[in-house]
């Protein structure tokens, strides 16, 4: 019992905070900037993939509607054309996904460094002894400092 009283007394001396790191990444100006930048960078390729997919769907519809009245040679040629276009489309889609994931990871890593630095500065300025991020089973609203750190982050250059 004495140990519990002593440990509670020691804990009262510590200033603890909790930061929802995901919320900072999502709601900060910098996070929004990263999302918009990536969207702009990959918009053209995304549109190309949509056009390619639509062209394949049209060819498949043509095969479905006209395949029974086409000559065997024309039907086989159309089937091969569809298969070839699907392979190209799938390859381009996979390359697109890989490229966007690489760029997203680069940008997120850079943003994470910035967010960590702002959390550290805020914590030092406000004399926190311990600041936790996810995964945390429970954090009382009394120790939640996410909104304050978000304000600092959004006011940072």
Provide structural commentary.
The chain has one domain (12-155): Protein Binding, DinI Protein, Chain A, CATH 3.30.910. A two-stranded parallel sheet has the order 1-2. It has 157 residues and is mainly α. It is rod-shaped, with a radius of gyration of 27 Å. The protein has helices at 2-11, 21-27, 29-66, 72-125, 146-155; strands spanning 16-18, 130-132.
List the helices and strands and how they pair.
Layout: H1 2-11, E1 16-18, H2 21-27, H3 29-66, H4 72-125, E2 130-132, H5 146-155
Parallel strand pairs: 1-2
Helix pairs in contact: 2-3, 2-5, 3-4
The profile of the biggest β sheet is:
2 strands, parallel
How many structurally independent domains? 1
Report Rg: 27 Å
Number of strands: 2
**Low-confidence parts, pLDDT < 50 over ≥5 residues?**
1-6
Q: Helical stretch count?
A: 5
| Morphology | rod-shaped
Q: Mean pLDDT, nearest integer?
A: 90
What is the end-to-end distance?
Answer: 51 Å
Specify the CATH class: Alpha Beta
Please give the oligomerization state of what you see: single chain
Classify the helix fraction into a percent range: over 70%
Structural class: mainly alpha
Strand content: under 5%
Order of helices and strands: HEHHHEH
CATH superfamily name? Skp domain
Q: Numbering strands along the chain, what is their spatial order in the largest sheet? A: 1-2
CATH topology: Protein Binding, DinI Protein, Chain A
The CATH architecture designation is 2-Layer Sandwich
């Amino acid at each position: 019992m004495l140990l519990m009283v002593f440990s509670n007394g020691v804990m009262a001396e510590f200033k603890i905070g909790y930061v929802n790191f995901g919320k900072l990444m999502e709601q900060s100006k910098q996070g929004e900037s990263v999302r918009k930048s990536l969207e702009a960078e990959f918009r053209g390729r995304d549109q190309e993939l949509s056009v390619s997919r639509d062209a394949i769907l049209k060819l498949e519809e043509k095969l479905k509607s006209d395949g029974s009245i086409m000559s065997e040679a024309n039907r086989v040629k159309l089937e091969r054309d569809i298969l070839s276009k699907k392979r190209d489309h799938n390859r381009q889609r996979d390359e697109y996904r890989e490229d966007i994931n690489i760029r997203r990871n680069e940008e997120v890593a850079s943003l994470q460094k910035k967010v960590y630095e702002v959390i550290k500065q805020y914590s030092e300025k406000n004399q926190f002894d311990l600041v936790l991020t996810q995964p945390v089973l429970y954090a009382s609203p009394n120790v939640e400092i996410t909104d304050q750190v978000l304000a600092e982050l959004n006011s940072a250059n």
